[in-house]
Amino acid sequence: MGREHQRIETLCIHSGEPRPRLGGAVSMPVFQSSTFEYTGEESYGALRYIRMNNTPNHEALHAKLAALEGAEAALVTASGMAAISTTLLALLSPGDHVLAQNRLYGGTHALLFGELARLGVACDLIDADRPETWTSKLRGATRLVYAESITNPLLSVGDLPGIASFAKAHGLISIIDNTFPTPLLFRPIETGFDLSLHSCTKYLNGHSDIVAGAVIGRGDLVGQVLHTLNHLGGSLDPHACFLLHRGLKTLAVRVREQCKNAQALAEFLERRPEVLHVNYPGLPSHPSHARARALFSGYGGMVSFELDGDEKRADRFLAALRLPVTAPGLGGVETLVTRPATTSHAAMSREARLAAGITDTLIRVSVGIEAHEDLCADFAQALSN
Ligand SMILES: *Cc1c(COP(=O)(O)O)cnc(C)c1O
After folding, report:
1. What spacing in Å lies between the alpha carbon of 274 and ligand 1's midpoint?
2. CA-to-CA distance for 243 and 331, rounded, in angstroms?
3. How confident is the model at residue 4 (pLDDT cuts 50, 70, 90)?
4. Is 64 among the catalytic positions?
5. What are residue 288's phi and psi, to 5 degrees?
6. Statement: residue 1 has pLDDT above 80
């Protein structure tokens, strides 16, 4: 049966696995070797060396990730930010202009308006919900459009097919950060994006125990990013490769459970009088519900909600929770909670934060794979606390 006919659950397990199996090993072994014996390779890029991201562990992951997103090529990196920064540095030059979706991941926003601005790259933000406003922001020097599949922490979904076709119509490279939905729920390359980026630290690995990233998409662009990565040095360690490879095998079962639990928790929270408002694309009350239903095959494992009361009330609620861990990060098998005002969005002024809809009592939940009955019971006792 050809790859193209296999479903993603099967690809998670079987794609990218070395054939024949190395030494007969059913599980991909770790090649804990920084360098590999010279066997007559004719180009520098063909020599095997960890920083060149071309050990057997890297190559198996590249093939698996490309198969999961239905892409020509993929590349793993030392972190999600290494994937984002290496990609942008590979594709942009001084004088270039970027259109980026507003409400970006904090690190990406800081990179675009800090380091890249310093290197002479200009950036304007666009509202991903209002395609009629995009053309007026185009410049002669506009080179790429940068989007995120689901925004953090209000979980809105922009007009993603619109962004991909806008980029095509204007000869721009389109890039999307697909960390939140994962290829299980959304495959940007099939929607027309050129590159899909991931923090594999989150759902793709899924166990909160490594930091890693990925660049997936058009072969020529991934090749350009690899060339820059070899110079910048953000390559992934083989042991982290091994853990990511293992984590990817259970992606489908994990994310499906997380979607089911997140839906149950969101519906439970929406019924509670202590909760002012719940943000979850799987709720008909969410402004992006119809779009998420049309584009995604599930609504994801992230939920956020606003508590009635002040920040002291919010901190009391977090302290009363027994199952979830209060910690930044997301996408692991354990439920994590944060208050974005003090974590992901602490660097923003209070005014700007409130204008962006991130109030003092907003709680973000990365829903894990515990029994949702136990999660809801724990949230109930903490709300009544
Ligand atoms: C975490 C995250 C990143 C950064 O990834 P790291 O692996 O922490 O470097 C980028 N984008 C999104 C959407 C993230 O959640």
Report:
1. 31
2. 15
3. low
4. no
5. -100, 10
6. no
pLDDT in tens, 278-312: 999 999 999 999 999 999 999 999 999 999 999 99
Q: Is the CB of 213 under 6 A from ligand 1?
A: yes
Per residue in 148-158, pLDDT (tens digit) is 999 999 999 99
311 Cα: distance to centroid of ligand 1 (angstroms): 26
The tokens of 277 are what?
């408002």
Beta carbons within 8 Å of 351's beta carbon, 6+ residues apart? none
Q: Residues spanned by CATH 3.90.1150.10 within the chain? A: 253-383
CATH architecture of the domain 3-248 equals 3-Layer(aba) Sandwich (3.40)
CA distance 324 to 365: 9
Is the CB of 268 within 6 Å of ligand 1? no
| Residue 149 in contact with ligand 1 by CB distance below 6 A | no
Closest atom of ligand 1 to CA, residue 81: 9
**Residue 3 pLDDT exceeds 70:** no
Give start-end residues of each CATH 3.40.640.10 domain in the chain. Answer: 3-248
Question: Does residue 177 carry a catalytic annotation?
Answer: yes
Q: Is 209 one of the annotated active-site residues of the chain?
A: no
Mean pLDDT across 134-145: 98
User: Which residue is closest in CA terms to ligand 1's atom 4?
Assistant: 80
| pTM of the complete model | 0.97
Question: Which residue's CA is the closest to the ligand 1 atom numbered 5?
Answer: 80
Query: Does the active-site annotation cover 118?
Result: no
CA distances for 210 relative to 177, 239, 243, 332, angstroms:
19, 9, 8, 11
Write the CATH number of the domain with boundaries 253-383.
3.90.1150.10
